[in-house]
Amino acid sequence: MARALALAVRGLGATSPNPPVGAVVVRRGHIVGEGYHRRAGGPHAEVLALRRAGKQAQGATLYVTLEPCCHLDKRTPPCAPAVIASGITRVVVAARDPNPKVRGRGLTALRQAGLRVDVGMGRVEAERLSEPYRTRITTGLPFVTLKIASTLDGKIATAKGESRWITSPASRRLVHQARARVDAIVTGIGTVLADDPSLTARPGLSHGRTPLRIVLDPSLRIPLRANVLRDGQAPTLMVATAQAPRSKRAVLEKIGADVLVLPSQGGRLAWRTLLTELGRRGIASVLIEGGAEVNASALREGVVDRVLYFLAPTLLGGRDALGSIGGRSPARLREALSLKRVTVTRAGPDILVEGDLH
């Protein structure tokens, strides 16, 4: 199963809205076939592994990170019948598929055909790999990761707004990897005005996919020369409110940007309204790369699932330097948000703290 999980990792960022899946066929202690889901619409991992195994699948064991599918409402044939027809006698499944069209039916089909089916080996790792898929299937919302890069004392910019670069090239490489694995990258108009980012993944990391760039800009203040509008590297969605000038919206649409107008709450865009719309559009994963106020609003509304916090070993200090999370501080420590399942790793000279909020 460890090999199947390692294969599934290769599909991260390429299979959305499908989950990344890996599969391995083992006969008499030897791997005779393996595969992973490479892209949405392409052959599933089980099919690829069975093709490579060929006749050696007879009497063999199939290890797969997700329950084989059994429904027809998709672009590829169901996998459970292919497994049954292959001559496989045992299937080891890491995690059940939460999709109501599958959810146990694939396992039942295999068992009814006389195959031995074991479930749960590598479940935690498999479920973590497929979190965006699982979240969107079960809630209708994308899985949201908040990325922050700051000094050791929590500053993301000097008093004059200088922020490039606080963290190291090693940290930035990891950020590009994170971008390549999501469906959309969200930032605020403040970040666009201050840094004019491109919000793209480096070539060679994105599997030929380009994450959608989303700019939260209630009044459509974005300059028409902004990189996200002019570089042609990826599609851009501007999110505005009804207060935005219709003339600016028309200009943005003319130069190729999509404009989404959402209702406002106290002059601000509501995260859950936005995420519901993104889920409806098939977006399964979102990376927030915003400034202090965007970070604060996402955390305040409870929409962040995971935090990636890069800490550079530098101290900036000063009350006027910009902190990583804006808004008002809670009155009591018990109101602080606590990360769960925390990991701490090195990124060059920096430290990456990663944890979940749900």
Protein described:
This protein is an alpha/beta fold and 358 residues long. It has helices spanning 2-9, 45-53, 79-86, 105-112, 123-129, 131-139, 169-180, 189-195, 227-230, 246-254, 271-280, 292-300, and strands at residues 22-27, 30-36, 61-66, 90-95, 116-119, 143-151, 155-157, 184-188, 212-216, 236-240, 258-261, 264-265, 268-269, 285-288, 306-312, 322-323, 340-347, 350-356. Strands 11-10-9-8-14-6-15-18-17 form a 9-stranded mixed beta sheet, with helices on both faces. It has a 5-stranded mixed beta sheet with strand order 2-1-3-4-5. Helix 3 (79-86) packs parallel to helix 4 (105-112). The chain is elongated, with a radius of gyration of 23 Å. The protein starts with a helix and ends with a strand. The mean pLDDT is 92.
Instruction: List low-pLDDT spans.
Output: none
Instruction: Give, in spatial order, the strands making up the sheet with the most strands.
Output: 11-10-9-8-14-6-15-18-17
The global form is elongated
Total DSSP helices: 12
Main sheet: strands, sense, barrel: 9 strands, mixed
Could you tell me how far the N terminus lies from the C terminus, measured between alpha carbons in angstroms? 26 Å
Beta-strand segment tally: 18
Give a short overview:
It contains twelve helices and 18 strands.
